[in-house]
Specification:
heterodimer, A: about 190 residues, alpha/beta, Rossmann fold, five-stranded parallel beta sheet, two-stranded antiparallel sheet, 6 helices, about 20% strand, B: about 230 residues, Ubiquitin-like (UB roll), 2 domains, five-stranded mixed beta sheet, 10 strands
């Protein structure tokens, strides 16, 4: 056992995403058994570790930044991970949340909480949520690489499980990355 | 009878009728030169620059060049591929291309070229331009976020009276392609479909019909763009 190489440590996060990229990650199916031989997870929704307990080799980021908590989390990941990977369209270009980018923030909030067709009687006090506990929403949704330095990008909505696997395997083992045509898709 | 000329592309000896458009001449010799603003059957424009090749050492667009005797053409070089990739990345950074929400995704030529050149993220900063969606036309929807101003629709789509359905307005980087509300009102389904098909991206979408082809069966899901030409 003594000569077994130390496992690489991986952290993951879902910022302004839908967890679809994490779901796609789980689509590696039985290769997850190979994965746990290769890596150990730290801060991640996969093992529910909430705070970094050690420095990590690889951080996988799903989702862009739509509020100040996302920005805080992302900077925390940059500080605690050697390699940071943007996983999926939202992390890479803002994705669907970024479709609000050309609508003024005030209009977005008013549509969501005051004027939208589904609001009806649900908000009798006409309150736009402003509790100090809530993260503050940003003026627009930012791709991760506009906030911190990102080392690699895996496109897709979600990225194909094979792409996530190939990339992670290559990063962990130092082997060449395989990118067949079928794995690079933007949807 | 047409006179045939000999020329080479990346060293391969080729032959085509004199005066053939270079993109077409290459195709006749099983060589793919990538195009975006070019469309078979309509006059070439030379605006997107994707088809740039080196002819006798000088760069030129293959869609606006006619083939002649003894031409030495470089097409598939590392330099040209890098250049073409940069053009694709610039187009992605310049508009708002939300592929996951686009009906044309999977059959989009811009996206297919990004796949071909392995664009994982544009190397240029996103410009996030504020652009509109015109959904009020009865037959067609115009999404300016996705428009790459290739003007294929302007050159290729006319109604039964020969009137152009599309026109451009404004100038320079503000140029936008508009649908003529009058002529577009009475176009038939066939022409509406033709307009959607002639658009290389998802800027022209036919209304009341959509997402007919399932994921995995779309044009570029399995086959890279140009693979039907390259043998």
């Amino acid at each position: 056992m003594g000569n077994k190489p130390a496992k690489k440590i991986v952290a993951t996060a879902s910022l302004a995403g839908c967890f679809g990229c994490h779901m796609s990650f789980l689509d590696i199916d039985e290769r997850i058994l190979d994965l746990i031989e290769l890596v150990e997870f730290n801060k991640s929704p996969i093992d529910d570790i909430k705070k970094f307990t050690k420095h990590c080799h690889i951080g996988l980021i799903e989702g862009g930044c739509c509020n100040d908590e996302n920005v805080h989390n992302l900077k925390d990941f940059r500080k605690n991970c050697d390699i940071l990977v943007s996983v999926g369209e939202c992390a890479i270009m803002g994705g669907l949340p970024a479709m609000r980018n050309n609508v003024p923030l005030k209009e977005c909030l008013e549509e969501a909480y005051l004027d939208g067709p589904t609001v009806t009687d649900a908000n009798p006090g006409k309150i736009i949520p402003n509790d100090p506990e809530l993260p503050k929403i940003l003026n627009r949704v930012y791709p991760c690489h506009e906030i911190v330095k990102i080392d690699y990008f895996l496109p897709g909505c979600p990225p194909r499980a094979d792409l996530i696997w190939n990339a992670l395997y290559a990063l962990v083992t130092g082997s060449d990355l395989k990118l067949p045509y079928e794995v690079i898709k933007f949807d | 009878m047409a006179t045939f000329v000999k020329f080479t592309i990346d060293g391969k000896e080729c032959m085509a009728a004199e005066g053939t458009q270079l993109v077409e001449a290459a195709k006749q010799n099983d060589i793919y030169i990538p195009t975006l603003c070019n469309y078979e059957g309509i006059p070439p424009k030379g605006s997107c620059r994707i088809c740039t090749v080196n002819i006798n050492g000088r760069p030129a667009t293959a869609c606006t060049t006619k083939v002649s005797e003894g031409m030495e053409i470089q097409n598939n070089t590392e330099e040209l591929s890098g250049f073409r990739k940069a053009v694709v990345e610039m187009l992605f950074a310049e508009g708002n291309h939300f592929c996951p929400s686009c009906e044309k995704s999977g059959s989009c030529e811009l996206q297919a070229l990004a796949y071909k050149y392995t664009v994982l993220v544009p190397a240029f900063p996103y410009m996030n331009p504020a652009r509109d969606i015109e959904a009020w036309h009865p037959k067609l929807m115009k999404d300016h976020n996705r428009c790459i101003q290739c003007k294929r629709c302007i050159r290729g789509i006319t109604n039964a009276e020969g009137k152009s359905v599309f026109a451009f307005g404004k100038r320079g980087h503000n140029v936008m392609i508009n649908i003529d509300p009058e002529t577009s009102k009475n176009i038939n389904d066939e022409l509406a479909q033709k307009a959607m098909d002639i658009c290389p991206v998802g800027a022209i979408i036919r209304k009341e019909i959509g997402f007919k082809v399932s994921i995995g069966k779309r044009k570029y899901d399995k086959q890279p763009i140009g693979s039907d030409i390259e043998k």
